[in-house]
Amino acid sequence: MSFKQLAHGFDKLDLHSLPSPCYVVDEAKIEDNLRILHYVQEQSGAKILLALKAFSMYSLAPLVMKYLKGVCASGLNEAKLGREEFNGEVHSYAAAFRPQEFAQIVELSDHVVFNSCSQWAHYREQALSYKNSKEKLSFGVRINPQHSEGETPLYDPCAPCSRMGIRIEDMAQLNFQGLSGLHFHTLCEHNFDPLARTLDAIEKNYGQYLHQVNWVNFGGGHHITREDYDREKLIHRIKAFRQKYNVEVYLEPGEAIALNAGVLVTEVLDTLHNSMDIAIIDASATCHMPDVLEMPYRPVLTGAADAGKKPYTYRLGGPSCLAGDVVGDYSFDRPLHAGDRFMFEDMAIYTMVKNTTFNGINLPAIVVWDSTTQQTKSIKHFSYRDFKQRLS
Ligand SMILES: Cc1ncc(COP(=O)(O)O)c(C=O)c1O
Questions:
Q1: Which of 27, 112, 173, 278 has the smallest CB count inside 10 Å?
Q2: What number does the ligand 1 atom closest to the CA of 252 have?
């Protein structure tokens, strides 16, 4: 089935009516993404969770929970947020749980996923003791199928010497009694074919274990809401997998929920020249869009082109002291001036959840916008108090 997506356009946003810098999230686009995910759920029988690590905007929790089954958490704080704000399942996984937090994690969660044989051995008895009072509580382990699809080692949990998940050669050490599920997370912004190859590797090596569990969690990294994603193949494979092993299938994407649903609005503070034209903007790569430096990548800037394509090329850099706080080189139709505003695209994911106040730079405000009605709602504005509150 082809999905008719609404024509969303941040081009209708009145940038000068907004605070700067500011993240603007289009709730209509989020709902479009959620409808697609819901369709995949309905057709495949899989359950889809929002990975809070990518997008924790709990003001939109009622909208998210109209379509999805719950959230996945990376530790105690996300598990608490999931339980408090999202009215659905909470699945928790961490590379290692902290002993002083474990009881609370279990209390808050429906599924708890352990990363290693030693973590499960360490917590097994304690974990199983909670099952008497919480019938639906379920435990699983993360596997490492040692099948890499990603090209960036930073985002490849199957890279050599990875600390993520149990390799097939280590499965013999695992006490399988008390475990009901397997979890893997190996993908990043991928289409269906890399998932298919990963599943082939898992079915080949972990087949005997797949027959012993009640659920398998396929992790995140599935770009299901991207236009070119092959959703019908995904649905077909999930159905076949569920039938073959008689298991429930979970997916826990983060990006797919808020893909292309947010922008970061920024203003030019100054322009200068040092061998090339430079513009200093009030948004910072290191503080407000850290993946730009971590990954690294150059975000799309609406209306601008690659360096040299349009008559005026500028290097855009943030207000911090970090020499490398540079978003990238872009070209424009006209020279830039202080007060000019523009927006970086696809900034709802892995931004608000990762940003910092390095140099005392304020966090961008957060605004929800509806591209179908043009209505804006100011959700949060950050001030000196927020900066000070984290320090001592
Ligand atoms: C265990 C796990 N689940 C889910 C996700 C969400 O992935 P994405 O936002 O790429 O879909 C991640 C991302 O790192 C992850 O580590």
A1: 173
A2: 4
Q: pLDDT 10s digit of each residue in the chain, 392 long?
A: 555 555 568 989 999 999 999 999 999 999 999 999 999 999 999 999 999 999 999 999 999 999 999 999 999 999 999 999 999 999 999 999 999 999 999 999 999 999 999 999 999 999 999 988 888 899 999 999 999 998 888 899 999 999 999 999 999 999 999 999 999 999 999 999 999 999 999 999 999 999 999 999 999 999 999 999 999 999 999 999 999 999 999 999 999 999 999 999 999 999 999 999 999 999 999 999 999 999 999 999 999 999 999 999 999 999 999 999 999 999 999 999 999 999 999 999 999 999 999 999 999 999 999 999 999 999 999 999 999 999 99
Q: How many domains does the chain have?
A: 2
CATH number at residue 316: 2.40.37.10
User: Per the structure block, which two tokens stand in for 334?
Assistant: 């006209």
Helix axes 99-108, 76-85, angle to 10 degrees: 20
Q: Is the same domain home to 68 and 189? A: yes
| Residue 38 backbone dihedrals phi, psi, to 5 degrees | -65, -40
Strands 215-217 and 181-183, sheet pairing: parallel
Q: Are residues 265 and 177 in the same domain?
A: no
Q: Which of 219, 239, 258 is the last residue of a domain?
A: 258
| 219 C-alpha to ligand 1 centroid (Å) | 6
State which ligand 1 atom lies nearest to the alpha carbon of 157. 16
Query: What is residue 126's three-state secondary structure?
Result: helix
Q: Which residues line ligand 1 (CB under 6 A)?
A: 51, 53-54, 72, 93, 185, 188, 219-221, 252-256
181 SS3 class = strand
